[in-house]
Amino acid sequence: MSGQTYLTVAYLGMIGALALWTWTVFARSRTLEAKIESLEKALSKNESE
Amino acid sequence: MNIKGEAVAIVGLTGAAITLWLGMMWAPSVSIAAFKAPEAQRIFYWHVPSAWAAMIAFGMLFVGSIMWFFKRSEWAWRLHVASSEAGLATGLMCVWSGCIWGAAEWGVPWDWTDIRLNTFAMLTLLSLYLVLGRRSQPDGVETRDTFAAFGMYGFVLVPVTYIATRLWQIRHPGPVVATSEGSLNSDMSIVLFIGAISFTVLIIGYVMAGMRLTELEMRLEDLQNQYEERVQ
User: Fold this and answer.
1) Do A11 and B219 touch (CB under 8 A)?
2) Contacts with A26 from chain B: Cβ below 8 Å
3) Measured between alpha carbons, how far is B199 from B47 in angstroms, rounded to an integer?
4) CB of B38 within 8 A of CB of A3?
5) Cβ separation B216–A32 shorter than 8 A
6) In angstroms, what separates the C-alpha of A33 from chain B's closest C-alpha?
7) Which long-range contacts (CB under 8 A, 24 or more apart) does A2-8 make?
């Protein structure tokens, strides 16, 4: 593998991994917000009954 | 929805991508005589800023850990959690890029006799232990104390890593910025500077988003407890 190709593959792997990590942080945040919202709704419904 | 941390992380990630592009397309080539793999040397523009960002994260981990012990504040604990995760991400980037360069330049990805390599790897493993440990253990004061102790005493590896190439240079190259033996070419310095700024912004974004995430986890746990109490 030439030096330039080796570097390109390495670069793509690294930026891809970091982008994946960032997306995971965002996805976890969205999942937690959705769970909190549904629990808050369930609790307020339970309170009104 | 609070997306401040996410927006900052996106800005940092974009900056990191620009750094990669500049490092590959714009930064000058190094002397063929000085390096066995001159093209792979360009990994330096990713490796050094990621190491820098990891050191910032380990510093924040130390602050969060020590403040948890002395103040017992939820904010300090959230800083501990977020910085251990951010330190893991950037630490892995640094180790990975170092292995890629080592494989091309030295012919081996790792040197077990090099102090700098091993102390930095230990710091990254420490953050891995903190991230996995926290996810597998129930939250409580004792658990937090244990992890905070690791975060606090583990910080001793940061100055050791910093001075390692100055005191015991084995294989890892020594400092290249503003040393008595001269400094980097100005174009190289510009790319390195953009990389350092981008990774600093990225680590701040990660820590902000991570602290928000921990806050959400705590809120969810609290709501789940309330819900279970009502159902019973």
Assistant:
1) no
2) 6, 209
3) 11
4) yes
5) yes
6) 7
7) A2/B39, A3/B37, A3/B38, A3/B39, A3/B40, A3/B104, A4/B39, A6/B39, A6/B40, A6/B100, A6/B104, A7/B24, A7/B39, A7/B40, A7/B42, A7/B43, A8/B24
* B82-118 pLDDT per residue, tens: 999 999 999 999 999 999 989 888 888 898 988 899 9
Give the DSSP letter of residue B31: P
Pairwise CA distance, residues A40 & B224, whole Å:
9
Among A7, A10, A49, CA closest to B24: A7
* ipTM value > 0.90: no
Across-strand partners of B179?
B182
Segment 90-129 of chain B within 8 Å of chain A by CB: 92-93, 96-97, 100, 104
Global confidence as pTM: 0.89
B24 touches chain A (CB under 8 A): yes
Written as one letter, the residue type at B153 is Y
User: Which of A14, A32, A43 lies nearest to residue B220, judging by beta carbons?
Assistant: A32
The secondary structure of residue B32, as a DSSP letter, is T
Decide if B6 and A26 are in contact by the 8 Å CB cutoff: yes
Q: How far apart are the first and last CA of chain A?
A: 69
Residue with tokens 């910032």: B56
Q: Please indicate whether, in this complex, the C-beta atoms of A15 and B16 are within 8 angstroms of each other.
A: yes
Within 154-173 of B, beta carbons closer than 8 Å to A belong to none
State pLDDT tens for residues B156-187: 999 998 888 778 877 788 776 656 665 677 88
Strand (E) or helix (H) holding B114 = none
Preferred mutation among A6, A18, A20, A47 to probe B, highest tally of B CBs within 10 A: A18
Reading the block at residue A30, the tokens are: 């969205």
